[in-house]
Design brief:
145 residues; globular
Length: 145
């Protein structure tokens, strides 16, 4: 019986952590809302590929949840918009537009259905060459996929 070597794990290098803010709207409606969040840009050294992804959440207070419960037939913007498969070129400027998917927390997959294509116009708040620290001084979650 021969020994099998485990394949080497891919090596990743953080390129930047981008804090963003701006407006988003689900593509089937015109009503937009304010959002803030972050994008993470990793480079897979092993494969020579960039991986940029992230998300934004509603800058509105969670105090609106009771209003949404009381008025379920009124349109309410999503709490979260996620972005995958972003190219480094898309986020190179101080302002940019991204397409994402809306998410209303809950459901079996973490988001209640339906989810919608969502357009966002975002501006860079700050760029970091490291993951930001949490309040306890440890790097925030921003792990690579």
């Amino acid at each position: 019986m021969g020994c099998q070597q485990k394949p080497a794990k891919d090596e990743y290098r953080l390129i930047e952590h981008i804090e963003v803010a701006g407006q988003c709207h689900e593509n089937h409606v015109a009503q937009s809302a304010e959002y803030k969040g972050s994008l993470v840009h990793w480079f897979n050294v092993t494969k020579g590929k960039h991986n940029v992804y992230g998300g934004v959440d509603s800058a509105e207070d969670l105090d609106k949840v009771p209003e949404e419960t009381a008025n379920p037939n009124k349109y309410h913007p999503p709490f979260i918009v996620t972005f995958d498969d972003i190219t480094p070129e898309q986020v190179a400027q101080p302002e940019f537009s991204l397409s994402g998917i809306s998410c209303r927390p809950g459901g079996t997959l973490g988001c209640n259905q339906p989810q919608y294509e969502t357009s966002c116009r975002l501006r860079v708040v700050r760029r970091l060459d490291h993951l930001p620290e949490d309040t306890d001084g440890k790097p925030k979650e921003g792990t690579k996929k």
